[in-house]
Write a structure and sequence with these properties.
The chain is built from 6 helices and 2 strands; from the N terminus they run H-H-E-H-E-H-H-H. The protein is mostly helical and about 130 residues long. Helix 5 packs across helix 6. The radius of gyration is 18 Å and the shape is elongated.
């Protein structure tokens, strides 16, 4: 709705699994896979609405909560990662750990951005 209301171009970036991902439960469970991606911290939900700046509000909103599911188990739920792990277990373990670390770092940075902007907003209103 925010994108439609914005008077100008909007950009939506979404996680959308496809048949090539090899969702083990089947492509019919892609909505569940999207939720798992967010729950595991593989994908983060956030919004940036520049119109809120004019209102003195924080334009950046982080909608994701901290990860509550296993990142590695999410990866294993997709054939593309499971095959990598089966063929190259040592390399996959290192890559999975690095991917989880990177995702955690991104989430932390998004939290910091949301908090920094909230603090600026609060100071401006005080």
């Amino acid at each position: 709705m925010e994108a439609e209301q914005y008077d100008g171009p909007s950009l939506l970036i979404a996680y959308a699994p496809c048949i090539s991902h090899g969702i083990k439960e089947g492509i019919g469970k892609s909505m569940a896979s999207m939720k798992q991606a967010v729950d595991a911290g593989y994908w983060h939900l956030y919004r940036y609405n520049p119109q809120l700046i004019k209102e003195g509000k924080n334009p950046f909103a982080l909608d994701s909560r901290p990860p509550k599911a296993s990142f590695t188990e999410f990866l294993r739920s997709q054939l593309r990662y499971a095959v990598l792990e089966a063929q190259y277990p040592k390399e996959a373990k290192a890559l999975f750990a690095k991917a989880e670390e990177d995702a955690g770092r991104r989430y932390q940075r998004y939290r910091e951005m949301a908090e920094e902007l909230k603090e600026l907003e609060k100071k401006k209103n005080d």
